[in-house]
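Here is the promised in-class demo. Please do not try to memorize the tokens; focus on the logic of going from shape to residues.
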């Protein structure tokens, strides 16, 4: 069985909007979600900036017992509730076993791990919370979503670092396409802007130490010097076309391809041959049965690190050859920061609405051209343009590469 798969709902919690309408509007308006860290006292840190979620109160989303749920799970629940509402799907006795959840996180409950360990050191093992493990482990995002939504089908988690959100949606795509589920809620979530999380990335020299919010996350810019940590969640509703048409659902766009590959090179650095990223894009395009030159837009992984941006540029050139200079490329991490395990899901959502509404998002705050990064990075602001195919890339620590291909629904 091979079925067409469409996106019929979406939800998001992000540094530039806590619902899809605000988020998409802010993407179009090139809003910068980066600011000075407020979630912890970072006086001893070189890193001063992050892309935090603003004005998030779990009670406003009807989240019960928030103290028993880590922030990454709270984000996931809030996004899933919006996704369910926007889809118009009603989960009942007849369909709950054909409805699944694939929700991942790159790190999971890191702030919970940190706080409970501090409690252990100061007060002893008997003071460690009984909720510690259920709050911290990554699969709890998927578990809570299934409980909240009432799904009884597949319930699982992808964990592939910064490719997590993309792989979650890719896994869901295959489940629906191959007939194992009729509808799947899929995405990624992350909340690792805490003392330990920032310290860990800072010690790797992975983060930007800039104090200028407009020159910190600057993908493909020659002066880029590291990424800016972000947080949040995004959930997409993937549904068989037959199911969507039968219930007269609002179809945002179609998902037509998914590709994965491994660099098999280094735990944090991308392979300089750029073959990993090239093959994940190639496989997604081949699954869709189209030619590379039909792709109009790439939402690049574009982290604002020296190695990632030049290597991803090389991967695009290897696959698309002459067409590399005809397609539009941008990195919305310039607005949202790097949301780690959530980033692929958030950027997939961007692609869905770019196709649906007819725009190409910008790479904001770009100033200095890098000779190694010479593609059309859409730096002049949002382009109002109808596009047919949009590709979203995610390249994670461990050498994980993943790409999703979306198509304007016709």
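The designed amino acids, position by position:
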């Amino acid at each position: 069985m091979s079925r067409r798969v469409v996106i019929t709902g979406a939800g998001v919690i992000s540094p530039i909007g806590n619902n899809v309408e605000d988020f998409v509007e802010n993407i179009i308006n090139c809003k910068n979600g980066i600011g000075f860290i407020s979630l912890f006292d970072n006086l001893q840190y070189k890193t001063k900036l992050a892309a935090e979620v603003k004005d998030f109160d779990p009670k406003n989303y009807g989240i019960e017992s928030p103290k028993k749920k880590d922030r990454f799970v709270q984000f996931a629940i809030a996004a899933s509730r919006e996704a369910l509402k926007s889809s118009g799907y009603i989960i009942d006795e007849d369909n709950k076993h054909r409805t699944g959840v694939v929700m991942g996180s790159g790190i999971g409950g890191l702030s919970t791990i940190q706080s409970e360990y501090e409690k252990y050191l100061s007060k002893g093992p008997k003071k460690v919370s009984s909720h510690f493990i259920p709050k911290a482990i990554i699969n709890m995002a998927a578990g809570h979503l299934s409980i909240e939504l009432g799904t009884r089908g597949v319930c699982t988690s992808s964990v592939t670092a910064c490719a997590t959100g993309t792989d979650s949606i890719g896994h869901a795509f295959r489940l629906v396409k191959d007939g194992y589920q009729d509808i799947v809620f899929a995405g990624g979530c992350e909340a690792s802007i805490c003392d330990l999380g920032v310290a860990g990335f800072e010690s790797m020299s992975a983060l930007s130490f800039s104090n200028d919010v407009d020159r910190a996350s600057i993908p493909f810019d020659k002066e880029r010097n590291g990424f800016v940590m972000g947080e949040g969640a995004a959930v997409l509703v993937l549904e068989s076309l037959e199911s969507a048409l039968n219930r007269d659902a609002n179809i945002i766009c179609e998902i037509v391809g998914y590709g994965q590959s491994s660099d098999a090179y280094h735990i944090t650095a991308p392979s300089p041959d750029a073959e990993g990223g090239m093959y994940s894009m190639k496989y997604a395009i081949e699954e869709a049965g189209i030619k590379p030159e039909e792709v109009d837009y790439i939402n690049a992984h574009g982290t604002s690190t020296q190695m990632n941006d030049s290597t991803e540029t090389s991967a695009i050139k290897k696959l698309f050859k002459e067409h590399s200079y005809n397609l539009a490329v941008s990195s919305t991490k310039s607005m949202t920061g790097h949301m780690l395990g959530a980033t692929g899901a958030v950027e997939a959502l961007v692609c869905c609405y770019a196709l649906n509404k007819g725009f190409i998002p910008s790479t904001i705050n770009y100033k200095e051209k890098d000779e190694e990064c010479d593609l059309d990075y859409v730096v002049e602001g949002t382009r109002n343009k109808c596009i047919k195919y949009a590709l979203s890339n995610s390249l994670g620590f461990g050498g994980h590469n993943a790409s999703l291909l979306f198509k304007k629904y016709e």
